[in-house]
Amino acid sequence: MARCSPPLLRRFFRCAAKSTSASAGAGGTSKKNIVFLGSPQVAASVLETLLVASESPDSAFQVAAVVTQPPAAKNRGRKLLPSAVAQLALDRGFPSDLIFTPERAGEEAFLSDLKDVRPELCITAAYGNILPQRFLDIPHYGTVNIHPSLLPLYRGAAPVQRALQDGVEETGVSLAYTVRALDAGPVIACEKFAVDEYIKSPELLAILFNLGSKLLLHELPSILDGSAKEKAKPQDDSEATHAPKLNSDESWLSFDQEAKVLHNKVRAFAGWPGTRAKLQLVNQNGEPDVLEIKVISTKVCASCDKTRDGNEVLFSGNSLLIPCSGSSCLEVSELQLPGKKVTTARDFWNGLRGQKLLKSP
User: Fold this and answer.
1) Domain check: are 287 and 212 in the same one?
2) d(CA 174, CA 191)
3) Is 130 among the domain residues?
4) Among residues 314, 199, 201, 294, which one has the least CA distance to residue 252?
5) How many whole angstroms separate alpha carbon 159 and alpha carbon 148?
6) Helix 84-91 / helix 41-54 crossing angle, nearest 10 deg
7) Do residues 209 and 45 touch, judged by C-beta distance below 8 A?
8) 27 belongs to a structural domain
9) What's the CATH number where 323 sits?
10) Where is the Formyl transferase N-terminal domain positioned along the sequence (predicted)?
């Protein structure tokens, strides 16, 4: 039966098939089989860490299979391209017939193939698919997830983004057993990380998954001998907060809010979906036109001098100064116009050629 749901996706990986390497496969060594599940670039860094560690002569485990999202149409050509995890595995010479790309983790064919691999442990990192109980029942030592928050805080799909949006000064990464309830399993270990006021979500995601990789390697011996289950601490559900998936409709900035709130949103939504704003461009004849911008980099000006027209956008230093709620201003140092590349605020301002810029009503 098909390993990957659509036949085209099966052919995509099988065309690059290579013979099973010494560091992968379902048998032939005394090493314990681990199956890794992940999809984006941050997960690929975790897989790389595991593959390197598994190649050590004294390693107690081997990566027996990789599970990731199916190839998706990307870029202007809409060509089917593998996930970052699949691409890394292929580049490392991982057997393509052991890279599984089910549409859903509950597919019978996939679960059958997974059982054939005989995993003793599954590890997930930003996989992006719900794991049914039939999946969770397969690995002897369970499934362990690298979650980029200090659980039970920020359970859900966007923990880093929602934490930055809330303006937290500290976050971290947790290793937790996967249960049917979302991100609610016992926590094996966690590591804290101080958050500065300028870091954006893509950078923070990379940092936390890097910390999570190191934490995972440190805890793997206890996970693989079963003792981690004894020390893992149940989460206090009463302290849980949730981090729902980002929505593109949330990307608009409203300058009726405090500058700090908007700055945190810019940091949180960096990458995808980004943050957008509407301004008014008034020409020399006083005729207004709506200008839509994508806001890339910001700072907070806690107290700024506003003009007699409290809606006017000024320029100072290297930033646009957009008046916000109270006496605060949002300093915008980088922005992007529709169909254009990211530009500095100075270059943008110089291109206005004397036209006035206002907040959009």
Assistant:
1) no
2) 7
3) yes
4) 294
5) 6
6) 30
7) yes
8) no
9) 3.10.25.10
10) 33-198
Distance between CA 13 and CA 101 in Å, rounded?
A: 9
Residues 235 and 257 reside in one and the same domain? no
3-state secondary structure of 267: helix
Give dist(CA 86, CA 94) in Å, integer: 9
Last residue of a domain, one of 243, 275, 291: 243
**Which range has the worst mean pLDDT, 53-57, 127-131, 298-302?**
298-302
Segments of the chain assigned E as strands = 32-38, 61-67, 72-74, 79-81, 99-100, 121-125, 143-147, 170-177, 187-194, 275-282, 288-301, 314-316, 319-323, 329-336, 342-344, 356-359
Given the structure tokens 């893992």, which residue do they identify? 232
The amino acid that residue 38 corresponds to is G
Whether 50 and 177 share a structural domain: yes
Both 183 and 254 in one domain: the answer is no
Q: What angle do CA 357, 315, 336 make, to 5 degrees?
A: 65
**Sign of the torsion formed by the C-alpha atoms of 343, 344, 345 and 346:** negative
In terms of Cβ atoms closer than 10 Å to its own Cβ (0-12, 13-18, 19+), residue 148 is: buried
Inside any domain, residue 8: no
Q: Which pLDDT score, from 0 to 100, does residue 74 have? A: 78
Of 136, 98, 105, the closest CA to residue 21 belongs to 98
How far apart CA 302 and CA 71 sit, in angstroms, is 46
- pLDDT at 18 > cutoff 60: no
7 CB-near residues (< 8 Å, 6+ apart): none
pLDDT at 79: 87
- Domain CATH number, residue 71: 3.40.50.170
Based on the domain organization, do 40 and 160 belong to the same domain? Answer: yes
- Find out whether 271 and 202 touch, Cβ atoms under 8 Å: yes
**Residues 277, 210 share a domain:** no
Q: Burial-class residue 11 by CB neighbours within 10 Å (0-12, 13-18, 19+).
A: exposed
* Residue 256: domain span: 248-359
Residue 109 has pLDDT above 70, yes or no: yes
For residue 276, the cross-strand partners are: 252, 294
